[in-house]
Amino acid sequence: MAATVAKYTKIINRWYVSVEGPSERLKLSRAPVPRKTKPFPTEREAKQFAKAMQLDGFRVTAGTLNPHQPRRRIITASEIDRWIEEKE
What we know:
single chain; alpha+beta; 4-stranded antiparallel beta sheet; 4 helices; 4 strands; 23% strand
């Protein structure tokens, strides 16, 4: 039954952006780094959010939520600038 439901469930949010605190905070403590992840329906919205968070000094990663999609993507922190600037 779960497979049937999943087959017909429409995925609304296709992209995610994960945000980690500024690197200066990491040096002060050995505590785990807090990370927040936010879903987005479009790549454009994800890029806008990622750019804003990066300008505020956060470490940003992103990607697609559906691992079975032919265009599965994972954008690492070192690739985020290139991804933000690429045309859709």
